[in-house]
Amino acid sequence: MTPNAGLSWEQAVQRLREQPEQRQLVLDCYYDDPLSEAAQRYWKSREWTAVRRLLPAGRNRALDVGAGRGIASYALAREGYSVTSLEPDASSIVGAGAIRALAAAAALDITVVQDFSERLPFADGHFDVVFARAVLHHTRDLRLACAEFRRVLRPGGRLIAIREHVIDRADDLPAFLESHPLHYLYGGENAFTLVQYREALEAAGLQVKQTLAPFDSPINWTPRSRFLSWLMAREPIWSVASAALNRVDHRPGRLYSFVAERT
């Protein structure tokens, strides 16, 4: 498939919505409307239940980077955080406009800022949590973005970067892009190696506390696999099965998640 670079992200999502055969994908990606219902569904999802366990005990200031439609901002606010959503796209469907409308409708403490991860317009040490859902692989400068995340975190603050596409080598990238259900519409996808992610985090001065492989957490494989959800509920079968699946899974673009802290 040849990417259509002429489509914006908003146009790509609209095009996806227009395809009846992609209805389940739209729901799985929380691109459906009304947005308030999609955000509520995300907050109650198995993915967010697992994310909740990664959040620090305090509920203070959180930055949601690359916030998109605001589903994670909504979830963080429902958890008690004062949330700042960073989203460069102004779109009322998939960007800052959508987040503002969602925050107003839900009466939640969410401030929206339109800017990029590589130039965060915030003071040093301002946030307790930086949350990034499928963001690092989209950055124009991975190391600079990680350095900015570290800068705006307070000492001891936590970066939670989830659902990041991983490839084993640069030669795997074309195969991943070919398989991505949205890349052909707007041409904006990317992936890095596991080493590149870890090196960028560590070079920024962040200490990586957890690296969650594809089958270590439902964060990386929900909501699409009911079988894995069924299997996960059956310990100790799941511990053996997940370890085996992680060993054999070399799919280009498989998902990893990271938890790191500013020391």
Order of helices and strands: HHHHEHEHEEHEHHEHEHHHE
Q: Tell me the name of the CATH class.
A: Alpha Beta
Radius of gyration: 18 Å
Q: Which range does the strand content fall in?
A: 15-25%
Classify the fold: give the CATH topology.
Rossmann fold
Provide the structure class. Answer: alpha/beta
Share of helical residues: 25-40%
Mean residue pLDDT = 94
Tell me the distance between the termini.
44 Å
Number of domain modules: 1
Q: What about the largest sheet?
A: 8 strands, mixed
Q: So, the CATH homologous superfamily?
A: Vaccinia Virus protein VP39
**Any idea what the shape is?**
globular
What is the count of β-strands?
A: 8
What report would you give on this structure?
- By secondary structure, the protein is α/β, with parallel strands linked by helices.
- The chain has one domain (9-262): Vaccinia Virus protein VP39 (Rossmann fold, 3-Layer(aba) Sandwich).
- The protein contains 13 helices and 8 strands.
- Strands 1, 2, 3, 4, 5, 6, 7 and 8 form an 8-stranded mixed beta sheet that branches.
- The radius of gyration is 18 Å and the shape is globular.
- It starts with 8 loop residues before the first helix and ends with a strand.
- The mean pLDDT is 94.
Quick structural overview:
By secondary structure, this protein is α/β, with parallel strands linked by helices.
Which helices and strands appear, and what pairs or packs with what?
Layout: H1 9-17, H2 23-28, H3 35-43, H4 46-52, E1 61-65, H5 71-78, E2 82-86, H6 96-106, E3 110-113, E4 127-133, H7 142-152, E5 153-167, H8 173-179, H9 183-186, E6 192-193, H10 194-203, E7 206-212, H11 218-221, H12 226-232, H13 237-248, E8 254-262
Parallel strand pairs: 1-2, 1-4, 2-3, 4-5, 5-6
Antiparallel strand pairs: 5-8, 7-8
Helix pairs in contact: 3-5, 7-10
